[in-house]
Specification:
It contains 5 helices and 13 strands. The chain is of the alpha+beta class. It has one domain: Jelly Rolls, CATH 2.60.120.10. The strands form 3 sheets. Strands 1, 2, 3, 4, 6, 9 and 11 form a 7-stranded mixed β-sheet that branches. A hairpin with a 6-residue loop joins strand 7 (about 165) and strand 8. Helix 2 packs antiparallel against helix 3 and helix 2 packs antiparallel against helix 5 (about 85-90). It is globular and about 50 Å long. It starts with a helix and ends in a 6-residue tail after the last strand. Bound molecules: fe (ii) ion (FE2). Fe (ii) ion binds near residues 150, 154, 184 and 190.
């Protein structure tokens, strides 16, 4: 009983609840109806997971180079609409489980020193759950996360920093800023690039959780065999 009470006040649960609230209320003008459906499904599932007992886990930590940007991000609050979510994210920053996520190889080498994945709720998160991933994400300045896709549905919600975002293979990059929500449908290609400032986001995964990310040299060429990004063993 006492333990569940503690779980419900955990900084990561507070982050999850604030995220669900934002996803429920954020304007959908720029989103297709399909993206809106995914956005609301995320909110509903996050709310449901917050009601469960989420055991805390403390696996081995490893060096995460992009955490050097954290002090800069902590003092960089975005628009008023994201204020309470930003505060929850700032508090949860020291609680989520930070990793560089990928093994270093030719695909990840250029961005990995600028890549920090903070799993809050999830199979490898601070709070264990197999249905969703909810976490924080830091991406350093002047970095490019190359086009990739995965069977799980995904959202990113920018808290600070700007990025050029591509959703769909070979589509133009469009400017995104704090408060914006990007939805990636299952197996939909996505990529983004930062400018002068680091970017701080909340992100989530739902659906086919165990299936890995894949990429092609040309994401629009369905005859090309998929390649799989190597994930670091936790
Ligand atoms: Fe993704």
């Amino acid at each position: 009983m006492a333990q569940s009470l503690i779980r419900k006040q955990h900084p990561i649960v507070t982050l999850a609840k604030e995220t669900a609230k934002y996803l429920n209320n954020a304007s959908s003008e720029a989103n297709s109806s399909q993206s809106r459906r995914v956005q609301l499904a995320f909110a509903k599932e996050i709310e449901a997971v917050c009601q469960k007992d989420l055991p805390e886990q403390w696996p081995t930590e490893s060096e995460v180079r992009a955490l050097r940007f954290a002090p800069q991000l902590i003092g960089n609050q975005g628009p008023s609409a994201t204020a309470s979510l930003y505060q929850a994210a700032r508090t949860a920053l020291g609680w989520v489980r930070w990793t560089e996520f990928y093994e270093e190889d030719h695909w990840s080498r250029s961005f990995l020193p600028n890549f920090a994945n903070g799993e809050g709720i999830g199979p490898d998160g601070r709070l264990y759950n197999e249905e969703i991933i909810l976490g924080l994400f830091i991406f350093g300045p002047d970095s490019h996360y190359p086009a990739h896709a995965h069977p799980a549905e995904e959202f990113y919600l920018i808290l600070s920093g700007d990025a050029a975002w591509q959703i769909g293979a070979n589509t133009p990059y469009t400017a995104k800023s704090p408060g914006d929500i990007m939805i990636h449908q299952r197996n939909e290609s996505h990529s983004f690039k930062t400018g002068d400032d680091p970017m701080f986001c909340v992100f989530g995964w739902r659906g086919e959780m165990g299936a890995p990310s894949w990429y092609r040299d040309d994401m629009s060429d369905e005859t090309e065999e998929k390649k799989f990004a190597a994930i670091k063993k936790s």
